[in-house]
From TrEMBL:
Protein name: Uncharacterized protein
Similarity field: Belongs to the amiloride-sensitive sodium channel (TC 1.A.6) family.
Entries under InterPro entries matching the protein: ENaC
Location relative to the cell: Membrane
Length: 585
């Protein structure tokens, strides 16, 4: 086969007849090596310029004038771009620039490329919309979690005895004392729950003393207890109340087991806690919802909040409770006898309506199953309204140390009540003792209005940040009380069995007991292991880039090599040519 010298420029007349145009490397400004199947008859060679197959340079018979550096740069960039489209790895683009194709053939390939690009763009847009609208998914943990990795639930015991007969006969109370009784007695009429004016400081202290002294104390209620971490299998008779803290709830003065310091409220509420718990004081914790317990084994079972190593009744909390029937007042309690039990996370507030009723003369067994919600650290990059949850450092509450959705709602309710009504209920947390307490009819009407308004506000805020509206909201900060990104909740099952009926004829350590005065409760975990839920990104960075790259490669043949080709032909090669020419000058 005839070959040309590397640097020889050939005139059209010097090409031998036996040399096919297909064997030449160039045709005009285009490469022909991909089109050797094209018949030479369709090629109309321009006689004014010949391309040498070894030298990528157009030789023009007529001598051109000098070009400016900018014009030369643009010319080289256009040549490189043309070469990229013609010889690059993109699917079908070179057919659009094929010089031997007619207009109809080129138009066909333009339509094909347009359809391919359109479908690829639609699929990528749908993928992007799914990534923005649903950036995470909830899945069940693949590995079970041991129960010693989560706190034992807080158990709040509320006796159905708010004012002891030995302290005051509510039927004979008048004036301010009758109003105090109406604040805690569920049986008393609404007319008695209103006072004509706000209470002053002295009257508020009188109210606090009435509520605390009128209710039974912890030693009067908790007669025996067993916590395996401290007492092994023995029942403790004298020091049970060291495990319980007084706490105000919607059911009056109660006693909480495994409650956090200041009942998980901020240090600003310490003065308010002192009104019903003289031993209340803040204390640092080595545990948190986001960080969990320290990674130490065996675990420290005395660390707050308390936890257990195993499930079963022998590893749970056992309490024997006593309620003196002679102290019961129908005018205050009605026919209700027994206790109200609240089971919740140590971080949650106790102003809740989810309760269990504990009857007398029964053994009540409560089996608890924890459920954890965890969130990948990678989702911190998303805004809270997009991920639909808050980490602990993202939203601080005024009254509660830990952020949870229930704490957020109650914190918002207290703030709105202070703002709109200029008062709060006596059992709600306060930062200062002198803050007004709601006592008048207008105050309670205002509280009812605020409760409805806050509930409506939360519903509207949730809708504005819901999946349907996500991405259209202009709010910079989430106004909803979304759940905590890392949290633990407890589901419970309750079982009852009868206690012996012979105690009325016997003698007990605490005196003569009658029917309807004693009950027992045991709270324990149902199983040693449980499966939690995990919130993670639906598409992480690598998966998302891979999905986009896969679609571009599938429809267009675009890859990392295509990017390298574009940089080489359009940037590096023109720069090299300009640099060489500049050095030659």
């Amino acid at each position: 086969m005839f070959e040309y010298h590397k640097n020889k420029i050939n005139e059209i007349n010097s090409i031998p007849n036996n040399l096919s145009v297909e064997e030449n490397l160039y045709f005009r400004d285009f490469y022909l090596k991909d089109f050797k199947y094209i018949s030479p008859d369709v090629v109309n060679l321009n006689k004014n310029k010949i391309i040498n197959k070894d030298v990528e340079k157009v030789v023009i018979n007529e001598k051109l004038g000098p070009k400016s550096m900018l014009e030369k740069w643009i010319s080289e960039v256009m040549k490189g771009l043309k070469q990229f489209f013609y010889q690059g790895s993109l699917h079908g683009v070179k057919y659009i620039f094929e010089p031997t194709f007619g207009n109809k053939e080129k138009a066909t390939w333009v339509i094909i490329m347009f359809i391919s690009i359109f479908i690829c763009a639609v699929v990528i847009i749908q993928l992007f919309c799914k990534w923005t609208s649903t950036p995470f998914v909830n899945v069940i943990d693949s590995v079970p979690t041991p129960i010693w990795a989560v706190p034992f639930p807080t158990v709040v015991i509320c006796p159905h005895l708010h004012v002891k007969m030995s302290y005051a006969n509510v039927s004979e109370l008048e004036g301010l004392q009758e109003f105090f009784a109406a604040m805690v007695c569920p049986r008393m009429t609404k007319d008695n729950k209103y006072w004509s004016t706000r209470l002053d400081d002295m009257q508020f202290h009188m109210l606090s003393d009435f509520v605390v002294q009128g209710a039974p104390s912890c030693p009067e209620v908790v007669k025996a207890c067993n916590w395996p971490a401290l007492h092994d299998t023995k029942w403790e008779m004298d020091k049970c109340c060291e495990l319980f803290q007084p706490i105000f709830t919607n059911y009056g003065l109660c006693f909480a087991f495994n409650s956090l310091p200041l009942n998980a409220m901020t240090n600003d509420t310490q003065a308010w806690h002192k009104t019903f718990d003289v031993d209340a004081k803040p204390s640092a914790l080595n545990w948190g919802l986001d960080i969990g317990y320290p990674k130490v084994f065996p675990p420290d079972l005395t660390m707050k909040p308390l936890r257990v190593m195993a499930s079963g009744e022998a590893n749970g909390l056992g309490v024997e409770l006593f309620l003196n029937n002679t102290e019961h007042q129908y005018a205050c309690e009605g026919k209700s006898l027994g206790f109200t039990i609240l089971i919740s996370s140590p971080t949650d507030h106790v102003y809740t309506s989810t309760v269990l009723r504990l009857p007398m003369d029964r053994m009540t067994t409560i089996e608890v199953t924890p459920l954890t919600y965890k969130t990948d650290f990678s989702l911190r990059a998303l805004s809270p309204y997009r991920r639909q949850c808050f980490f602990q450092n993202e939203k601080r509450l005024q009254y509660y140390e830990f952020y949870t959705d229930s704490n957020c709602k109650h914190d918002l309710l207290v703030q709105e009540a202070r703002k709109k009504c200029n008062c709060v209920l006596f059992n709600w947390p306060r930062k200062f003792i002198w803050e007004p307490v709601c006592t008048t009819k207008d105050d309670f009407d205002c509280i009812s209005s605020v409760e409805a308004k806050v509930e409506e506000q939360l519903i509207y805020a949730y809708y504005a940040e819901s999946e349907d509206e996500r991405g259209t909201s202009q709010a910079q900060e989430s106004q909803s009380c979304h759940p905590s990104c890392n949290d633990v909740i407890y589901a419970s099952q309750v079982f009852y069995s009868d206690l012996t009926k012979e105690m009325e004829n016997g003698s007990h350590k605490w005196g003569h007991l009658r029917l309807g005065e004693v009950t027992q409760i045991n709270v324990h975990f149902y199983d040693d292991m449980f499966l939690g839920q995990h919130r993670h990104a639906q598409y992480d960075d690598y998966y998302f880039v891979g999905a986009i790259g896969g679609l571009l490669s599938l429809f267009l043949g675009f890859s990392i090599i295509s990017v390298a080709e574009l940089i080489f032909f359009v940037l590096l090669k023109p720069a090299y040519v300009i640099l060489i020419e500049f050095n030659q000058k």
